[in-house]
Each structure stands twice: as structure tokens, then as C-alpha cells.
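Let us practice reading a record.
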Amino acid sequence: MNSALSASTPIAVIGAGAMGAGIAQVAASAGHPVKLLDNRPGAAAQAVQGIAAQLNRLAEKGKLTAQAAQDTSARLSAAAQLSDLADCGLIIEAIVEDLQSKRKLFLDLEAIVSKDCILASNTSSISITAIGAVLAQPGRLAGLHFFNPAPLMALVEIVSGLGTEREIAERLFASAAAWGKTPVHTRSTPGFIVNRVARPYYAEGLRLLQEGAADPATMDACMREAGGFRMGPFELMDLIGHDVNFSVTRSVWNAFFNDQRFLPSLIQQELVDAGFLGRKNGRGFYDYREGAAAPTPKTEPQSQAMAALKTARVVVCGESAAAQALSSRLQSAGVASTAGPSQDGRIAEVLGAVLYVTDGRTATRRAAAQSDRNVVLIDLALDYSKAKRLAISVADQCAADAAAAAIGLLQAAGYAVSRFSDVPGLAVMRTVAMLANEAADAVNQGVCDVPSVDAAMRLGVNYPVGPLAWADQIGLGRVREVLGHLADSYGEDRYRISPLIQQRAYAGKGFHV
């Protein structure tokens, strides 16, 4: 039972929207006869024609052969009614995200299909346990959650409800793999893996915006050019649609009994209330209407202190990734530096300024704790040697000429510098720490395992590194420290540290041992 479905097994997809059509294309491309059904008159036939046209375009571009396009199209057909699906071995539901609608559909299907037919839902947020609770055979129902666009996105979440039989989940896993996808197992908990673990990516950006840390364009640029993310949180929310993104956040928040970690943002609610939904209607965080100016990040002008660096004593401290990259980049730019120790984590000293990578405290607080007023903090970067931009914050006590020297040093090293207000953890560091924290909690609560959560976030939302692999790269001790300082700064349960991060950090072990 754990083997993949035979390619001769007929499959049905119910719901001929973009997602349903995409799933049908995937299954047909893998060799299955596929029936597409939709309750809108003519929608299924139109979807079949659309898939055939898409396959022909791919053939014209040389991405598959004309014969393959023709054969795949021939395996697709439109069904007129549920009874037409009686011979199917797998039926995938991709209808409206409504519990009662899904329950009724599967109840109707139970009366039509054979007892061996597997039932699957493409739901992104509704409990598989709740859907299956009304069925006579809840064991044959599982989640088969594709990501849009289904033909291109590799990830498929195999979701097991409380009643799902293990062999059903394993067979769907094997089948998804045979279709060329990367499946991961997850329990049916709110948001499954991706929609749960991704919440901090949006939430921390919205929180920073609420605090006036920086504007959306600047934060997006830092997340792309330092964090290595494909899109920043604000442009991504605009792309998804604020109505959709806000609804998912509210759903996860409500499902977790209003856990503060998933608290929705008043800023996003205001956008939804105003009808500023993003790209779909021309306005969101950015203005997409014709003639609107393109958003540009705020970048510090060239510091007057750069000229003084030619004769200044520049000390690069320690052997951290940030320090090594800074030293190398300065050397390439012809700026001389000497190596020095780093007893307190500092990475550089120049003209009175002392630079550190953020540890979750504000620069002001760190300066007070170290009795050194000229503290400048830099944000986390995925790879300091390749990063194009760094966010910084400056202690309130810091002298203006010391801040200028720190900015000049980073500019001399080839970084565009974006100055944030002095917020705890800056942007990339606090976001990555919170993503790792949520991923660790998902593992700790038995939702999935470590490889699955990392694969899910890389493949489902295109993160440059899985959050737990990134936590290992930063060091779990540092991640724990950042989270602890965020919790201390805000006094909120939102930043509580996952027990699994605590355990691994104290044991001196990473997630990928």
C-alpha cells in the first residue's frame, strides 16, 4: 500500500480554478488519466482547454516535446457530475476554503466511489481531522496541499488528520514523489508547516513598520540584499493580496486560541478595510497604478568620514563571518586594517565607533551595558561577503562623528547602508530568529521533522536556507540570545523561546548534527 499509485490509476480533481487546473496538469503529466470537475457550467472544459494551450506553449519553447504535450492533453477530460468519478482511485478536492462545503463534497463522494478510493483535500488551512470527522471512512482522507502554481512549485504537504491511516499518507507521499514533487509529512495542525512557520516573516516586518523602524521599501531591500530572500515581506504581502494574507493570519491566530505569536497586525487590517489589497487592485504598501513612482529604499549618502579612513586606524576584531567578510572587502577596496581581538563580540573599531552584529538588544541598551557610548549595530546577513546592503542602528548616546565613521567604513567595504531607528534585533536577525523559533516549535510539537520543515520553507516559500539550517549557521546560542533579548525588550509572550531551541542550545548541539 505504500507504493505510488500506478500511472494507469484514474484521478479526479474537483475545482477547476487555477490551483485545481494546475494539480490536474501535474497528475496528467505523470501519466494518469485525469477527470476535472467543477460546479460552474463549462468551467472544467475551459480549464482542460487552458491546460492544453499551456502545454503547447511549453512545447513551443522546447521545455517538453510536442508528443508529450499531445499525450498529456489526451489524458485530460471534463466530467459532468460526481457520478462520473466512480472509477477513480484518487480524488483531490480543490474547492472553496469552507469546512461545510468540503464535508458535504466528501460525504457525497463516499456514496459514489469504491472503498479503496483515496480522498484528498488541497486545503491550505482547514483541519483534515475536522473534514474527515463526518465520514464513514475517515482513514482514507488526507491533505495533499500543493503550492501555486502547482506545475512549477516542488513542495507538496502530505497532511494527516487524527483519523488518517498511515498507509494512506505514505501512498500519497510516494505518489507525489513519483510525480516529480518533493513531499513532506505534517500533522493536521493550524497552518500545517508552511503557513504556520511563515507567519513571523510578515509579522516582524509589520511590527517594525508599526514602530517606525524604516519604511517598507527599505525593509524589503534589506531582506533581499542582506537576507537573501527573493522578496521582502511587504512586496510579498502585496503580491499575495492583503485580504488573503490577513485571512490566513487570523485563521492561524484563532486556531491557536489567540496565541500572541500569531497576532494579526492593525496595519494590515487597515489596508484590508481600505480595500488596498495589493497588486490585484493597484494599491497596497506600494502604488501599482499607472504613472506611480517606483518605491526606492532609503540609503545613507556617502559619509564624509570616508576620506579620513585613508589615514585612520581601522581594527577588524575577531574571526566571525561578519568580521572576516569586512576585512576581505576592505582589503579589496584598498582600505588598510589591522586584526584585533573580540572579547565582547565586536567586529570592528574605527575613529571611536565600535561595531557589533545585533544580539537582539537596541544599540542604546548595549551601549549602556558596556559603558561605551559609540555603539553601532549591523544586521544579520545570509553571506556578509556577498551582501549588497546592511541595516544599521546607532545608540542614542553615540557621537555623530563616530556614527559617520561607522557608516563610512561599511560604505568603503561596498555595502549600501540603510539606517533604521534603534529597534531591538533590526530586521533580518529578528525575522530569522523568529522563523527558526516557530520551526523548532513545530518540530517540538510533532508536527513534522527537521528535514521536512527546512525543505518546506525552501521549496514552499523560496527561503534561501531552511530556518533550522540557518539557525545552525548563526549558532543556536546566538539565536537563543536574540530571542531572549527580544522577549526582555518587549515583555511579551510573542517572543518566548521554543523549548527545543533551549534544549539544543544548552546541549551544544545543532539541528543538523
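A brief commentary: The CA atoms of residues 360 and 482 lie 4 Å apart.
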